[in-house]
Amino acid sequence: xxxxxxxxxxxxxxxxxxxxxxxxxxxxxxxxxxxxxxxxxxxxxxxxxxxxxxxxxxxxxxxxxxxxxxxxxxxxxxxxxxxxxxxxxxxxxxxxxxxxxxxxxxxxxxxxxxxxxxxxxxxxxxxxxxxxxxxxxxxxxxxxxxxxxxxxxxxxxxxxxxxxxxxxxxxxxxxxxxxxxxxxxxxxxxxxxxxxxxxxxxxxxxxxxxxxxxxxxxxxxxxxxxxxxxxxxxxxxxxxxxxxxxxxxxxxxxxxxxxxxxxxxxxxxxxxxxxxxxxxxxxxxxxxxxxxxxxxxxxxxxxxxxxxxxxxxxxxxxxxxxxxxxxxxxxxxxxxxxxxxxxxxxxxxxxxxxxxxxxxxxxxxxxxxxxxxxxxxxxxxxxxxxxxxxxxxxxxxxxxxxxxxxxxxxxxxxxxxxxxxxxxxxxxxxxxxxxxxxxxxxxxxxxx
Length: 448
What we know:
- By secondary structure, the chain is of the alpha/beta class.
- It has 3 domains: 2-220, Immunoglobulin-like (Sandwich); 252-285, no CATH class; 291-443, Rossmann fold (3-Layer(aba) Sandwich).
- Helices cover 34% and strands 27% of the residues.
- The chain has helices at 2-25, 28-43, 52-71, 123-128, 139-144, 146-157, 242-246, 272-278, 305-322, 350-358, 367-377, 393-404, 434-439, and strands spanning 77-82, 86-88, 93-101, 110-116, 159-161, 164-166, 174-183, 187-199, 206-220, 237-239, 257-260, 282-285, 289-298, 327-334, 338-343, 383-388, 409-415, 426-430.
- Strands 10, 13, 14, 15, 16, 17 and 18 form a 7-stranded mixed β-sheet that branches.
- Helix 12 (393-404) links the parallel strand 16 and strand 17.
- Helix 9 packs antiparallel against helix 10 (350-358).
- The longest helix is centred in the first third of the chain and has 24 residues, at 2-25.
- The radius of gyration is 30 Å and the shape is elongated.
- The model is unreliable at 237-255 (pLDDT under 50).
């Protein structure tokens, strides 16, 4: 099967590119005429038996003339795309395109299409990633694999935008078009060009004017609703050095007050300008505080697209829920190394954390790398929420060690199938039933 898919794959790439252009150039009536041309050509091969060849010649001539007319019937307009700051995966949204008349006649019967950058799925991804529900397709569709290719291409492109009609644009004036779009995935989506089309006098063929306009849209991950009654694990916790100290490795450069040097004080805490003025050592004094500091640990160590999307969505749901004005939240995940992104108490905001989550990709590093970093971070934590892609010995070991360190935990494991075995304090969330599973957290307090 894979060998056949390797052979068919280049054909899928070639077929999808030109068809997209033809579908925009011909109107519905134009496509009907094209069908008539093909049928009359087949029926009129023998000119002695039928007069279909005459209809073929008429239809062909009409379509060719319409094509020539469309080349000289292009709208004289300028366009500008007005995008929102963010969108959310799976949630349709609208945005505006401003169309301005640059010519000396009223522009009407226009249609506008917004074109995202089409991303061709790599061959290996095409071979290894089945379409959701592909097993329910007939044997021929599974053998050809065209539906799989189209699904992958749309997912990687990331955005579907509907073509819209443009109201008549007066001379020197402008019209606003409401475009409808649906993000198919999280992450950054590139929009490359706007295409304005106008039909020829026969209405068969559109004249196209392309406007190269590069824009990017950040699509945030889908979020689930978690009950306001949910209480995250853990409470206030001692934080050496306070908020300023908590956001950096080592000592903070900011201080609460100055005092005279005492034997045993660190040299790095000496405030040299004040020491020079007073001609004796003066040190910076830091304030220690107690406040809530949660860790949100995202497991992205498996190359499973569906599971990763749900893991990110669950993490995003908790990020929104745990964001409080008097607490800190540390998002921890793997990329080239372990990254920690902290929000709360003026350091950063939840919207910025969602932007980070939107760009997370599978990591090739082992889960132990993330696990060791979390354990080093444990002494600062009031509680920890673990969102895992699997339940194995390595992940069980992390939960066990955090429990021995008396870190209150909430453990959520994403699974493809029902899990018969249960682990005390661990919530198994099946794909397709994640939101219902999260709703049960209001009455469960996780691992202690």
